[in-house]
Each structure stands twice: as C-alpha cells, then as structure tokens.
Design goal:
Blueprint (H helix, E strand, L loop, with lengths): L1 E7 L2 E7 L8 H9 L9 E6 L6 E7 L4 E2 L3 H13 L7 E6 L2 E10 L2 E10 L20 E5 L2 E9 L3 E6 L8 H9 L9 E9 L2 E8 L3 E3 L3 H13 L6 E6 L2 E8 L4 E6 L2 E7 L4
Parallel strand pairs: 2-3, 4-6, 11-12, 13-15
Antiparallel strand pairs: 1-2, 1-18, 3-4, 4-5, 6-7, 7-8, 8-17, 9-10, 10-11, 12-13, 13-14, 15-16, 16-17
Keywords: Amino-acid biosynthesis, Cytoplasm, Isomerase, Lysine biosynthesis
GO molecular function, one term: diaminopimelate epimerase activity
Main location: cytoplasm
C-alpha cells in the first residue's frame, strides 16, 4: 500500500490515495499504521476517495480505529495532496466528509499548496445535535462535574463534537488524566473532543486538546474553530481569533452574518512510503 505521511501543525495522519489503492478494513489498518513504535506513526488514517457529490471524499479514522466525522487539519492536507499529486488542477475544491461537504481555497506557490482556507460551515449549538446531554437550547458556560471537580463548558459541533473549557493555567494541566474523564463522561453519548483554553487577549487564545480516540494531539482544526465560537459566545474575543496550538497557529473567523466559520492554516508533506502487510 502506497501512502503519504502529512501533517498540519503537527496533527499527523497517514494518507492513502484510494483512486489507486483499496483498503479492505480501514479501521484495523488505522490502528496498525498509527502505532508510533510498530507502525508508521500518526494520529490516524485518512483515505482520499472519489465522491458522487463533491470533488473528493475524505474518510478518516482515529488512531484507535474509530471513525471520525471531520478533521480540520486533515482536510487541509487532503487539499494539498490532491493538488500537489495531480488529482486536480483547481484551486477551489469541495470535499465530502461525514460532517458535510466542505469548501476549500488553496494558495499555491511554485506549483505547491502552501496554505489552505476552509469553509468549515455553520457551528452547531443545539445539545442534542452535538450531542451533549443538557436541558437548555445551548450549552454555554455550563457547569459539569468531572473527576470530583466542577468545570464550566461550552458545547459546539463543527461536524464533530467539542466541549470547550476555559481556565487560566493550561501549561501545567495534567491532560492525560482529565482528558479521558471528559471524553468518556456520561453527558457525551458519542464521546467528546475537549479543548482546554486560556484567552490571552481579544484576538488571541491558547489551547490544548484531548481528542477522542487519539489522546492529546499537537493541533485540532475543528477544535480551534469550536474554541473561537465558544470565545465569542462567552464574550471573550472578537470575531477573528489567532488560536495558538502546540503545533502552531491557526487563523479562525466566525462570520456572524453568514453564520460560517473559516479556518486558514498550513499543510505539509512529511514523506512518501510503502506499507508492507506482515
């Protein structure tokens, strides 16, 4: 199986061109290739496939083999792959995901994609659609007991579920302990991605993320979008925010008039290779 290892701000996946390759059991394959000691090493597996409703389809799997709806860093890498590897010559493309069809604009320099702007769509705030077990119409600054301590969360779906928790000190957060408790909390029927956020100023926020099925990752594009929406809903920032992740920065804008979130960031190829099944 030919593959390409790619990363967006350190959020790395193994990409397979399914115009040429056929993966019989992608969930099982995701677990194998993601292993950082015995596999290729990644946060998961992303298949680039033909689509009947868009230019391409992105089918993604987390490192534990579970299927994911969307990945903001992953979809930027899909855009770079299809252009750089000659699957398209268009600089505006559409990509089908389980979280809906996404529209991407590509910045090309010297024949290679350097930057991708993604129309991430409308943020979903209704608890039953995220899903989060809650009584109100939205989940904004709502208390939740986790590990015997009360936190306050804001729930947002960007095609996949997020809860955003604001706090002053995220650097010393024991995320490997608290992350799984949030992920598997009874209020999250489909598990959850949790962003722990420190707001620096009206235009800047810093975050760490615990992704369901993968653990802490260096970046999460949909998470950065959810963070921006949560910041605005809580009156903490303006509508355009630089979100600082462990792997780098993303520029996120929530256009309130269109009710659409835009994400702009890089995508890079790490290496190409061939996986030989043992």
């Amino acid at each position: 199986m030919e593959f390409t290892k790619m990363q967006g701000l350190g959020n790395d996946y193994v990409y397979v061109n399914c115009f040429k390759e056929k993966i019989e059991n992608p969930s099982e394959m995701a677990v194998k290739v993601s292993d950082r000691h015995f596999g290729i090493g990644s946060d998961g597996l992303i298949l680039i496939k033909p689509s009947e409703v868009a230019d391409f389809e992105m089918e993604m799997y987390n490192a534990d083999g579970s299927r994911g709806e969307m990945c903001g860093n992953g979809i930027r890498c899909v855009a770079k792959y299809v252009y750089d590897y000659g699957l398209t010559d268009k600089t505006s493309i559409s990509v089908e995901t389980l979280g809906g069809i996404k529209y991407l604009d590509l910045t090309v320099e010297h024949g290679k994609v350097t930057l991708v702007k993604v129309d991430m769509g409308t943020p979903i705030l209704k608890p039953e659609l995220i899903p989060i077990v809650a009584k109100g119409e939205t989940v904004i600054d709502e208390p939740i007991m986790v590990g015997g301590k009360e936190y306050h969360m804001t729930g947002v779906s960007m095609g996949n579920p997020h809860d955003v928790v604001f706090m002053d000190d995220i650097k010393n957060l024991e995320i490997e302990k608290i992350g799984p408790l949030f992920e598997n909390h009874e209020r999250f029927p489909n598990r959850i991605n949790t962003e722990f956020v420190n707001v620096i100023d009206r235009h800047t926020a810093q975050m760490r993320v615990w992704e369901r099925g993968s653990g802490e990752t260096l970046a999460c594009g949909t998470g950065a979008c959810a963070v921006t929406v949560a910041c605005i809903l809580n009156g903490l920032t303006e509508n355009t925010v630089t979100v600082k992740l462990l792997g780098g920065d993303l520029q996120i804008e929530w256009d309130r008039e269109k009710n659409t979130v835009y994400m702009t960031g890089p995508a890079e190829v790490s290496f190409d290779g061939v996986w030989k099944e043992k």
